[in-house]
Design brief:
Shape: elongated
Radius of gyration: 47 Å
Largest sheet: 3 strands, antiparallel
Number of helices: 4
Strand content: 15-25%
Structural class: alpha+beta
């Protein structure tokens, strides 16, 4: 017979060869897998004192803990400070807004000082009076109080003198008359009181 093989026989022979080789490859163990990982040992400097090294490590740990606690305290203080500044900023903005309402409150005061007796009991006057009371309630909510220093000693931190007169009823240097009330909220003076002072 001839050694020439048909194409079908060649294909069968090629299919059998990898299968045979595959079995042989599976039985071989990888060289890297067989070798165990080498054990690592801590290398200490020659003449090292383990007790001394432990003490130094403890000192370092203590210093790190102290630094962490200090940073934590500083952050807590920062939060308190920013919260306080935020509240103060809000309070200042609110007081600035209320300061703009003071001329309106003055107008209400002047209007009620000059209401004719004939219409004093009119319901319309009562309604307007309620509006004025709402303004005053708003001032009270922000602890804003009026400065009406008639008879008190003149204080340039709270009063603005726009005239001086001789008076038999009030001592010299005291306020004779309050021409326009001032307002303050705690230590913040929103507006000085306009006054006449006894000379």
């Amino acid at each position: 017979m001839s050694d020439v093989k048909s194409p079908a026989e060649e294909l069968e022979r090629e299919d059998e060869t990898p299968a045979a080789n595959a079995g042989a490859e599976d039985t071989a163990e990888p060289v890297d897998a067989v070798e165990a990982a080498p054990e690592t040992e801590l290398e200490l400097p020659e003449g090292a004192n383990l007790i001394q090294m432990l003490i130094e490590a403890q000192k370092e740990a203590k210093a790190n803990e102290d630094g962490w606690q200090r940073s934590r305290a500083e952050f807590a203080n920062y939060k308190k400070r920013t919260e306080r500044e935020r509240r103060e900023l809000f309070q200042r903005a609110a007081l600035d807004t209320l300061k703009g309402l003071l001329p309106i409150i003055d107008d209400f005061d002047r209007a009620f000082e000059s209401v004719p007796e004939a219409i004093g009991e009119d319901p319309w006057i009562g309604g307007v009076s309620m509006i004025q009371r709402k303004f005053m309630t708003l001032l009270e909510q922000y602890e804003v109080e009026a400065i009406d220093p008639t008879g008190d000693p003149f204080d340039p931190n709270l009063h603005q003198a726009i005239g001086a007169e001789e008076s038999d009823e009030v001592e010299s240097g005291h306020v004779i008359e309050t021409l326009q009330k001032g307002y303050r909220a705690g230590d913040n003076v929103l507006r000085l009181a306009l006054v006449k002072v006894a000379s």
